[in-house]
UniProtKB/TrEMBL annotation:
Classification via PANTHER family: T-BOX PROTEIN-RELATED, T-BOX TRANSCRIPTION FACTOR TBX20
Gene Ontology MF terms: DNA-binding transcription factor activity, RNA polymerase II-specific; RNA polymerase II cis-regulatory region sequence-specific DNA binding
Keywords: DNA-binding, Nucleus, Transcription, Transcription regulation
Species of provenance: Leptotrombidium deliense
Protein name from the UniProt record: T-box transcription factor TBX20-like protein
Source taxonomy: Eukaryota, Metazoa, Ecdysozoa, Arthropoda, Chelicerata
Length: 172
């Protein structure tokens, strides 16, 4: 996922273990299209049926409360797909739909359960964080050439798309 979600946490208990999970939920029941002449997104009809929700566990979990206060937690490895048959654990989204990422901080007081998987969030002690500025429209192709260029120039996973003639000697 680009741009990457990066977080820091305050107020965690240094003696507890925590899991940090990500899910991405639909914002509404609409499908969108991009209007080039207006340079804006317009409602294009009713949403496709949502894919089953998936929780993405941060690969470095569990964290101690102390670790969460001292380091940035980055979701740079999360993968998004529109393939409903995905078996790799990627988060499945419908293209041309709006989504909101959510971060769930799950408390594991008992060290013996720190590595147990989360199968039902409602059975856990957790807190959810939502940031309105992270709402996005899922696309399979960027609708704006400037955004395409920004991604190619900024996303470390887009190296293969970069024109080597534009690179400085240091970057080569």
């Amino acid at each position: 996922m680009f741009p990457t979600l990066r977080l820091t946490f305050l107020g965690t208990d240094p003696h507890c273990r925590y899991l940090v999970l990500l899910d991405i939920v639909p914002m509404d029941n609409k499908r969108y299209r991009y209007a080039y002449h207006r340079s804006s997104w317009l409602v294009a009809g009713k949403a496709d049926p949502p894919s089953p929700a998936r929780l993405y566990l941060h690969p470095d979990a569990p964290f101690t409360g102390d670790q969460l206060r001292k380091q940035v937690v980055s979701f740079e490895k999360v993968k998004l797909t529109n393939n409903e048959m995905d078996k790799q654990g990627h988060i499945v989204l419908n293209s041309m739909h709006r989504y909101q990422p959510r971060i769930h901080l799950v408390v594991r007081r008992d060290p013996n359960t720190a590595n147990n998987p989360v199968t039902d969030l409602e059975l856990e002690r957790y807190r959810t964080f939502v940031f309105p500025e992270t709402i996005f429209t899922a696309v399979t192709a960027y609708q704006n050439q400037l955004i395409t260029k920004l991604k190619i120039d900024s996303n470390p996973f887009a190296k293969g798309f970069r024109d080597s003639s534009r690179l400085t000697d240091l970057e080569r």
